[in-house]
């Protein structure tokens, strides 16, 4: 055994000789950035060995380092094995920092009608003249206390085993917990004395990157606590595909365990802040994408990632939390949102529930953007959906100085016409380290409005301004000079970055148009556009329209619903009627496979222009651009 | 039954003037006005249509030019002024398209020679001229300005603007009142995008000619045809950003496998047939200018156009 000390923080952990630094760091609870899942491909897990002996092939991974960095002991944590006691420095850029996780769901004025209830009952002890069995006595008590009728409640064996002792020990004063499950009512707990006020439920947004948990007091109908954290599966690969491949190679159990652990961690944090006992949480509602929920349930997701893309299950599921390993009342129920397809999962159904589009007569368009995007178009009668790869550009990937919404990310930016000097804000207000998605959308719109780029996104290198220059490969615009950044390098956006962004936005818009064509409607018939997802909440609606990310409708008809997945989960947790509609919503949605739509490529090419090749689709943007760009006829 | 040869279309292709005569400030003996179409060419009942213009392509450095053409034209290819003169007086072309291939050598810097070449060609022929400039962004600006300057007043057609490089050529065209060839890779959307880009930096719509990029017969021509058809249909339906005349140059026609592998005795014939058939199909799609490299293709095309005009396609009407 060797001891590895991680600085800063001086966290110590014992590790096997020959195991990797990454493994030790993960066991020490340190979140290391491993985009590729530890294959030595992404070069993100750079650490510095300060003392001790390691084995690392500098020659093989030279491309990730400067000579200077190598001289200082830099190596890739995933490719370096421990040979002696070590002291390892983890730089800020390597540890996964607390991302600006969107935990704010929407305000929900939802009727409070949870699926699980507690009933405090005081029973008459049995006598020779009233010898009815314990269970009947208990269930009648519950019925008399306002619960469902006794014959409708099913009592599982483990309850029957508990009942006699509890009832007698508490002198026939007890609290019964009854849950509405598919098929009827179920007695899920019997406790001594009056615990009726201690009844909680948790709504979970199981994202591939982050997990958000809301704990609700199911007696008062109020939120008791909120917490979020990273999905620990990130250590097995950043994107879903990488994780499914990880599961194929190494089995599903680690991913299942990590998903459970991530949820448990958030539940624990939220419970601790709220000062409640996790045993009092009787219900967990989970909204997540199809692969995530399959993994959580320990169902093999392998067949979903290749043709013909078939999930194992798409209907809503209820299971006992104990079987999944969620730390709450072991008899509690876990409800998992239904899905439409591999690519339209429970998170999107939750978005739909959150924005209410499935109940409205008017047509709405829902867009959830991440690395992948999902689009749903429809109303109370019909719905079409599709999903596609937006590419990582809108989340900061494939962009030289792109980054996730971590501290130091430029999240808002405008450019002064003439001087071309930018005005920006960063997350947490610290010196900039890069640009996140919302900043990139602003930047693209601003570069267009100030004529730095043309409508295909090419930088006009003819402009005499020190911020516009050409590096060894591409023309670029300097957002901030090295001495004013937090990374000691000029932060720039290159023509290639811009190209990637335009390709991303073109696919989102093309998907919207494909659904509109499918439904035979035009943009004027869309009453509302809902932006869901973490990214959507910080988006500047006007700039998103200027670059043609979404069809042009009046800006005030664009609504950010924030984290729709958690809002939807909240609704399903506190309102049993809405929960019942989920399967029906999921069945109403027709899934359009974009790859099979011959017009999609054409729509996409049309969209690779700012805002769009068909300028008539963007009359307001065109008018705006006419005033800030020079147009001659 | 009389067919509606306009198919309900209501728009007109923009007219572009190529070449300026003395009265218009130039030295050309002819000035063409292309465009103006309201439907497809060669249909019965269409307004008088003189058929597309045939442009003969020459260059100022023929080392990489097709050996078939070099063999046919002989020594004349080494003097682009004489070559242009022959195209005009012997081959019977409507226009000359001069490729400044000399500028495409590595580290080319003799910008002054560009002006001299253009002037020499202008002096040896009085046909309107199309000039293809450099292919290297570092010298584009100087080369195009030099071409533009040398041909000032002549209403040249300058090529070739692409989405990735259009500013230099547009600047030269605007400075000296020439028109621009806007080339995009066989896609209606990309063609439209480039036209919008040009419009935005100030090139007037009646100074743009679309080059949809022409694959040669058997080597992608069907894609070009489809793109041309979509461009033209969109234009006639009212899309102003696509309502420009079209130029086609299937420059690979002389180097396709069937020509390269042909028996020496018939190689020349096959090359001409290949170029002719591609050009004819492009004309049917509505191209206003057809470019060729083999002198023998010119009379064949011209005869075909005449025949098509006199026996215009019956639209199936009785």
Structure description:
The complex is a heterodimer of chains A (633) and B (318). Chain A is an alpha/beta fold and 633 residues long. In chain A, the strands form 7 sheets. Chain A has a 6-stranded mixed sheet, sandwiched between helices. Chain A starts with a strand and ends in a 5-residue tail after the last helix. The model of chain A is unreliable at 98-103 (pLDDT under 50). Chain B is an alpha/beta fold and 318 residues long. Chain B has a single domain, classed as Dihydropteroate synthase-like (TIM Barrel), CATH 3.20.20.20. Chain B is built from 10 helices and 10 strands. Chain B has helices at 67-73, 80-91, 111-124, 137-150, 167-176, 188-200, 221-236, 257-260, 264-285, 297-310, and strands at residues 16-18, 32-34, 53-59, 95-99, 129-132, 157-161, 179-183, 208-211, 247-249, 289-292. In chain B, the strands form 2 sheets. Chain B has an 8-stranded parallel sheet with strand order 8-7-6-5-4-3-10-9. In chain B, strands 1-2 form a two-stranded antiparallel ribbon. In chain B, β6, α5 and β7 form a beta-alpha-beta unit. Chain B is globular and about 55 Å long. In chain B, 52% of the residues are buried. The model of chain B has no long low-confidence stretch (mean pLDDT 92).
């Amino acid at each position: 055994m060797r001891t590895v000390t991680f600085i800063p923080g001086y966290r110590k952990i014992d590790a096997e000789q020959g195991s990797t630094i990454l493994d030790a760091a993960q066991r020490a609870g340190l979140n290391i950035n491993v985009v590729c899942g530890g294959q030595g491909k992404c070069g993100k897990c750079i650490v510095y060995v300060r003392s001790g002996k390691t084995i690392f092939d500098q020659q093989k991974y030279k491309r990730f380092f400067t000579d200077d960095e190598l001289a200082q002991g830099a190596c890739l944590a995933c490719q370096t094995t421990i040979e002696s006691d070590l002291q390892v420095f983890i730089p800020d850029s390597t540890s996964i920092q607390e991302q600006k996780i969107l935990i704010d769901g929407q305000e929900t004025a939802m009727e409070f009608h949870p699926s699980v209830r507690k009933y405090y009952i005081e029973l008459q002890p049995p006598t020779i003249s009233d010898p009815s069995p314990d269970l009947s006595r208990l269930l009648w008590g519950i019925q008399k206390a306002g619960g469902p009728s006794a014959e409708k409640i099913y009592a599982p064996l483990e309850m029957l085993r508990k009942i006699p002792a509890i009832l007698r020990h508490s002198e026939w004063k007890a609290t019964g917990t009854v849950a509405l499950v598919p098929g009827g009512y179920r007695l899920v707990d019997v406790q001594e004395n009056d615990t009726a006020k201690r009844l909680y439920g948790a709504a979970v947004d199981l994202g591939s990157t982050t997990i958000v948990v809301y704990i609700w007091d199911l007696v008062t109908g109020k939120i008791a606590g909120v917490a979020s954290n990273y999905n620990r599966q990130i250590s097995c690969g950043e994107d879903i595909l990488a994780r499914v491949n990880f599961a194929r190679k190494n089995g599903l159990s680690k991913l299942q365990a990590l998903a459970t652990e991530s949820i448990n961690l958030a539940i624990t944090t939220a419970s601790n802040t709220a000062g409640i006992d996790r045993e009092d949480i009787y219900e967990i509602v989970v909204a997540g994408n199809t692969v995530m929920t399959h993994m959580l349930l320990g169902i093999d997701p392998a067949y979903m990632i290749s043709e013909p893309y078939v999930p194992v299950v798409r209907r809503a599921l209820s299971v006992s939390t104990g079987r999944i390993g969620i730390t709450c009342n072991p008899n509690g129920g876990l409800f998992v949102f239904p899905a439409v397809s591999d690519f339209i999962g429970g998170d999107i159904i939750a978005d739909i529930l959150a924005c209410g589009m499935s109940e409205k007569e008017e047509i709405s368009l829902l867009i959830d953007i991440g690395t992948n995007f999902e689009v749903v178009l429809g109303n109370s009668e019909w719905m079409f959906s599709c999903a596609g790869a937006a590419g990582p550009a809108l989340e900061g990937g494939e962009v030289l100085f792109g980054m996730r919404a971590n501290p130091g990310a430029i999240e808002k930016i405008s450019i002064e016409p003439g001087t071309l000097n930018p005005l920006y804000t960063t997350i947490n207000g610290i010196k900039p380290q890069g640009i996140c998605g919302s900043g990139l959308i602003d930047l693209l719109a601003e570069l267009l409005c100030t004529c730095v780029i043309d409508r295909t996104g090419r930088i006009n290198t003819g402009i005499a301004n020190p911020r516009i220059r050409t590096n060894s490969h591409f023309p670029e615009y300097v957002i901030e000079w090295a001495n004013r950044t937090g990374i000691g390098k000029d932060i720039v956006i290159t023509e290639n970055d811009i190209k990637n962004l335009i390709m991303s936005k073109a696919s989102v818009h093309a998907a919207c148009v494909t659904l509109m064509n499918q439904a035979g409607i035009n943009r004027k018939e869309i009453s509302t556009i809902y932006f869901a997802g973490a990214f959507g909440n910080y988006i500047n609606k006007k700039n998103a329209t200027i670059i043609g990310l979404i069809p042009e409708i009046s800006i005030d008809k664009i609504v950010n619903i924030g984290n729709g997945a958690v809002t939807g989960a909240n609704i399903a947790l506190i309102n049993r009627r809405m929960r019942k509609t989920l399967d029906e919503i999921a069945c109403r949605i027709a899934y359009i496979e974009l790859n099979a739509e011959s017009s999609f490529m054409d729509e996409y090419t049309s969209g690779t222009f700012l805002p769009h090749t068909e300028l008539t689709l963007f009359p307001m943007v065109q008018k705006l651009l006419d005033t800030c760009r020079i147009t001659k006829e | 039954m009389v067919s509606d040869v306009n198919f309900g279309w209501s728009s007109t292709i923009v007219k572009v003037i190529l070449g300026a005569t003395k009265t218009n400030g130039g030295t050309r003996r002819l000035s063409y006005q292309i465009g103006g179409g309201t439907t497809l060419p060669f249909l019965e009942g269409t307004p008088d249509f003189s058929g597309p213009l045939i442009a003969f392509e020459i260059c100022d450095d023929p080392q990489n030019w097709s050996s078939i053409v070099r063999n046919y034209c002989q020594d004349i290819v080494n003097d682009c002024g004489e070559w242009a003169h022959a195209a005009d007086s012997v081959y019977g072309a409507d226009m000359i398209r001069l490729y400044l291939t000399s500028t495409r050598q590595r580290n080319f810097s003799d910008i002054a020679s560009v002006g001299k070449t253009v002037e020499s060609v202008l002096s040896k022929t009085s046909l309107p001229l199309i000039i293809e400039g450099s292919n290297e962004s570092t010298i584009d600006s100087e080369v195009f300005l030099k071409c533009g300057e040398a041909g000032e007043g002549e209403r040249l057609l300058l090529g070739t603007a692409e989405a990735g490089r259009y500013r230099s050529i547009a600047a030269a065209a605007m400075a000296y009142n020439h028109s621009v060839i806007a080339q995009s890779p066989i896609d209606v959307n990309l063609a439209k995008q480039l036209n919008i880009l040009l419009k935005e930096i100030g090139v007037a719509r009646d100074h743009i000619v679309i080059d949809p990029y022409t694959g040669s017969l058997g080597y992608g021509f069907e894609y070009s045809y489809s793109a041309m058809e979509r461009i033209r249909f969109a234009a006639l339906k009212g899309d102003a950003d696509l309502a420009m005349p079209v130029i086609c140059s299937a420059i690979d026609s002389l180097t396709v496998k069937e020509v390269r592998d042909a028996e020496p005795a018939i190689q020349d014939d096959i090359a001409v047939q290949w170029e002719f058939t591609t050009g004819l199909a492009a004309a049917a799609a509505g191209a206003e200018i057809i470019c060729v490299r083999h002198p023998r293709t010119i009379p064949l095309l011209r005869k075909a156009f005449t025949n098509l005009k006199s026996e215009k396609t019956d639209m199936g009407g009785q």
